[in-house]
């Protein structure tokens, strides 16, 4: 049952990463960005990679392969890690704006890497903590 | 106080340097991958009235040395004859580690085993009966956890005891009747050479000769008994003997292990599971690239506010200097020359430290070892062993240790190719140039541009390696066998220490080489007396105009030519020189603004310049290291000339192609 829920969660999150990553790349290459999906070729590629890891996990879970859970866990870890990177970059931007006395809006931080990482973090707390604790002590 | 010399030996990545640092209080670099130590390091410690000298040797899997670093380890033990050899053994991988023990025992040197990473072995439920192991091998065995400093006193006490009693450990492996008969015959012949008999344990030497060890053959080549040795060896197949003797050693180990070790439950551990993903055939390289891009994004973004603070501080300092120093030339020297030159380099300290912090973290977790593994297929396709990617990864920090790390490469041609292409790996000294120009001309896309430059550096290294392999250095590469270190969560302190030890080098360079470079460039920009500072009429202008025709096809003017010339000394000097030549000591981001305001510069020129800086001769220290490691001025000259030609050509191509993408910006 647990693997079933993970599979559905991974499929939805993986599809979101893939879809929004494609939108970011398309916006960077061709035209105007969708609200809260800023144009960025590199961030788009990163989102596609995370989506691919999650969807590989879903495929392997569906086939009953043991490593499906591992792809799922690592995909979630990548999701959270890049969310943190995005937040740190946004925080630094806010600090820099404060130093320079320029305007800064919290809306500037709202990018797919951040809000998808919030969903990833929920998955991390629900399923992945024990796995990565084991990794840290391996 | 009596003196004792202890040599730390063992397989790669078993924690020798961690133990060395814990024993001696040193701060040698420790990495979570094999091959970090490529030459011996020395430290000192006092214990119970003994002045102990500890020597950290490069890791080696066996005493049949193949690579340059393994030869260093073996020759030290053989030629320098330490009082005791402490073999650091990875408790989680006893079988492979004990292979070296069987060979060390044949040398007859006093040995102590440091059963290191004992905590990691215990965490898997594995227990090791140290007393039984010690009794079976006739070697003291001490439990240690180097990273927490556990067992150090016991280890030193055991080493002192062994050194003082100096027991001769008889060989522990019997190789069977046929091999033993050959060993006896060879020992009989070798014993006639008194000099040889005094220098080397004859049984050990005979065994190595039977295995066809080139190094051992070289040792007897000058001996008067050489021809008789050759007669005996001509009748045997060394490969067959080597395989038989290795089998016998493993037979001994297989007999010992069940008596001393109780294995824990063995499923796939977490490290192995994660490796399934990060070394995946299709996803491994995209994950690696994503992580590298994340590294540069963080390096760029997080450092920005700190860089802004440093810029503001320097601007204040420069303004204070300008208003309070007389005469005017001295104010110019301090403001334009020193603050403008050194300050423009110091601004990038936050970027450098953040880059090193992230790279240290990735290295200490064990991920960079996986990066080498996933690049193996690509490296093998171009004719280099995957191991050659490790010197490239080290080169991201600094090319000097990167080139030295090529000592771990076994084939001479493989090693030479690895050395020749390492300068194309973008070291940290080039980062300030990228940040300056990418930041000024590419705005929000600057992180991506810097990432692409690093990728271009790897591509240039790989492409050049393929070219060399198919032209001047043909041959087959050896297969890549690399042990994956377990993933470890590094402590904050360890990562900060690594960051500091590497980043401090950058600050030191700013205070020495860049300082001197800024002084020279200021003099060139100020003389002869009476000329406008940094103008075409100055010495710098004359020098720049002399060089300008060489770089004019690339779109660079005379100021860039002068900066590139001084960049031969060290890449940071390029930024320092521009800071002086543009006279930008008095405002925060003045150099960026000055570059943007220069009508001769555009995004296209900036891109071509960054490509040129990436690929042309890295620095004097790297050139000296290439000379030392290749032992050849010819190869050193080739490296410099090839880098210059490639840089010039690629910068020209970028200058021609980039306008189509950047719209001639």
Helix content of chain B: 55-70%
Report the radius of gyration of chain B as a whole number of Å: 28 Å
Provide a count of the helices of chain A.
4
Poorly predicted runs of chain B: none
- Please report the total strand number of chain A as a whole number: 0
Report, as a whole number of angstroms, the end-to-end distance of chain B: 72 Å
Overall tally of domains of chain A = 1
Q: Counting H and I runs of at least 4 residues, what is the number of helices of chain B?
A: 32
Largest sheet composition of chain A: none
- The share of residues in extended strands of chain B comes to 5-15%
Helical proportion of chain A? over 70%
Order of helices and strands of chain A: HHHH
How many E strands of chain B? 8
Class inferred from helices and paired strands of chain B: alpha/beta
Taking all Cα atoms into account, the compactness measure Rg of chain A is 16 Å
Biggest protein-protein contact in the assembly: A-B, 34 and 36 residues
Compute the average pLDDT of chain A.
87
Which strand-content bin applies to the residues of chain A? Answer: under 5%
**Tally of distinct domains of chain B:** 3
Label the structural class of chain A: mainly alpha
Keywords:
heterodimer, A: 138 residues, mainly alpha, B: 665 residues, alpha/beta, Rossmann fold, Helix Hairpins, 3 domains, 6-stranded mixed beta sheet, 63% helix, 6% strand, elongated
């Amino acid at each position: 049952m647990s693997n079933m829920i993970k599979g559905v969660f991974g499929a939805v999150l993986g599809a979101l990463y893939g879809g929004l990553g494609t939108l970011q790349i398309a916006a960077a290459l061709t035209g105007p960005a969708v609200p809260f999906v800023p144009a960025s070729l590199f961030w788009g590629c990163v989102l596609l990679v995370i989506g691919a890891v999650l969807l590989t996990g879903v495929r392997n879970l569906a086939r009953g392969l043991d490593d499906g859970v591992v792809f799922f866990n690592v995909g979630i870890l990548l999701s959270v890690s890049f969310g943190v990177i995005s937040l740190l970059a946004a925080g630094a931007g806010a600090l820099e704006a404060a130093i320079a006395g320029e305007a800064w809006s919290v809306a500037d931080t709202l990018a797919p890497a951040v809000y998808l990482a919030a969903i990833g973090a929920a998955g991390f707390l629900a399923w992945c903590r024990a796995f990565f604790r084991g990794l840290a002590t391996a | 106080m009596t003196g004792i010399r202890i040599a730390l030996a063992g397989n790669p990545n078993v924690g020798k340097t961690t133990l060395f640092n814990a024993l001696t209080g040193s701060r040698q670099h420790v990495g979570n991958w094999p091959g970090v130590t490529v030459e011996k390091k020395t430290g000192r410690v006092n214990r119970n009235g003994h002045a102990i000298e500890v020597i950290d040797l490069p890791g080696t899997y066996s005493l049949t040395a193949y690579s340059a670093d393994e030869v260093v380890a073996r020759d030290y033990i053989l030629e320098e004859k330490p009082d005791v050899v402490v073999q650091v053994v990875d408790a989680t991988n006893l079988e492979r580690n004990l292979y070296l023990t069987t060979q060390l025992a044949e040398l007859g040197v006093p040995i102590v085993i440091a059963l290191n990473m004992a905590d990691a072995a215990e965490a898997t439920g594995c227990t090791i009966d140290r007393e039984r192991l010690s009794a079976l091998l006739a070697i003291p065995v001490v439990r240690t956890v180097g990273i927490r400093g556990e067992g150090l006193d016991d280890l030193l006490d055991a080493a002192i005891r062994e050194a003082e009693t100096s027991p001769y450990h008889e060989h522990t492996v019997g190789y069977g009747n046929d091999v033993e008969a050959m060993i006896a015959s060879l020992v009989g012949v070798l014993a006639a050479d008194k000099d040889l008999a005094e220098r080397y344990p004859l049984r050990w030497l005979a065994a190595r000769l039977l295995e066809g060890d080139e190094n051992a053959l070289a040792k007897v080549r000058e001996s008067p008994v050489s021809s008789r040795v050759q007669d005996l060896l001509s009748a045997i197949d060394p490969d067959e003997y080597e395989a038989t003797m290795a089998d016998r050693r493993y037979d001994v180990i297989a007999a010992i292990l069940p008596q001393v070790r109780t294995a824990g439950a063995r499923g796939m551990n977490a490290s192995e599971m994660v490796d399934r993903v990060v070394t995946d055939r299709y996803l491994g390289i995209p994950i690696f690239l994503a992580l590298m891009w994340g590294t540069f994004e963080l390096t760029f973004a997080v450092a920005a506010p700190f860089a802004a603070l440093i810029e503001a501080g320097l601007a204040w300092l420069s303004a204070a200097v300008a208003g309070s120093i007389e005469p005017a030339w001295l104010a110019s020297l301090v403001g334009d020359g020193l603050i403008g030159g050194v300050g423009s380099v110091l601004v990038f300290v936050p970027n450098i430290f953040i880059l090193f912090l992230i790279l240290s973290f990735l290295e200490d977790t064990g991920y960079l070892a996986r990066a080498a593994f996933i690049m193996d297929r690509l490296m093998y396709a171009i004719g280099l062993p995957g191991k050659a990617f490790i010197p490239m990864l080290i080169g991201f920090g600094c090319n000097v240790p990167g080139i030295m790390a090529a000592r771990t490469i076994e084939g001479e041609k493989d090693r030479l190719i690895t050395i020749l292409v390492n300068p194309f790996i973008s070291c940290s000294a080039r980062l300030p140039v990228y940040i300056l120009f990418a930041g000024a001309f590419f705005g929000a896309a600057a992180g991506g541009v810097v990432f692409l430059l690093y990728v271009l550096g790897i591509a240039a290294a790989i492409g050049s390696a393929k070219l060399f392999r198919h032209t001047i250095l043909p041959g087959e590469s050896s297969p890549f066998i690399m042990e994956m270190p377990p993933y470890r969560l590094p402590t904050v302190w360890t990562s900060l220490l690594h960051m500091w030890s590497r980043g401090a080098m950058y600050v030191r360079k700013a205070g020495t080489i860049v300082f001197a470079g800024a002084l020279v460039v200021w003099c060139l920009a100020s003389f002869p007396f009476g000329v406008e500072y940094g103008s075409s009429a100055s010495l710098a202008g004359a020098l720049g105009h002399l060089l300008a025709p060489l770089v004019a096809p690339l779109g660079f003017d005379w100021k860039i030519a002068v900066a590139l010339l001084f960049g031969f000394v060290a890449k940071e000097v390029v930024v320092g020189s521009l800071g002086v030549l543009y006279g930008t000591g008095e405002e925060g981001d003045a150099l960026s603004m000055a570059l943007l305001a220069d009508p001769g510069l555009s995004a296209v020129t900036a891109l071509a310049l960054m490509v040129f800086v990436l690929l042309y001769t890295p620095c004097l220290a790297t050139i000296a290291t290439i000379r030392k490691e290749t032992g050849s001025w010819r190869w050193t000259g080739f490296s410099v000339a090839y880098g210059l030609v490639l840089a010039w050509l690629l910068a020209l191509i970028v200058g021609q192609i980039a306008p189509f993408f950047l719209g001639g910006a």
